[in-house]
Amino acid sequence: MADLTATNHPEPAAEPASDRPEGQVPGPDGPRPAATEPHLAGRRVVLIDVDEENETAHYTHGHRAASDVLVDPEGVPVVEVVPERSWQAWRKRGTGRCPEAFPWPADLVWVA
Q1: 100 against 33, higher pLDDT
Q2: Which residue range(s) make up the domain with 48?
């Protein structure tokens, strides 16, 4: 998994699914799993980094999806993501693949 630097952004303020009334889902403007979105490229995303040893998760903002959901050589669904600043610089050049893009597990990417 890629090494990400921490940001000063707060974590999403959503209650755990287990605390929601049955059948209630976040509103249309709330974060959504990237795997359920038909078109991701260019969308702002939140990356989730799970620390299984400490049973915690960290949320990293400030990235864009550089691809839709892809399957890597090991068969894992991933999304190519890139830091926002690099995305903007690449968009101005507008050529080829964004050089700073890196894969992130699709189930740990949410559309912001």
Answers
A1: 33
A2: 39-111
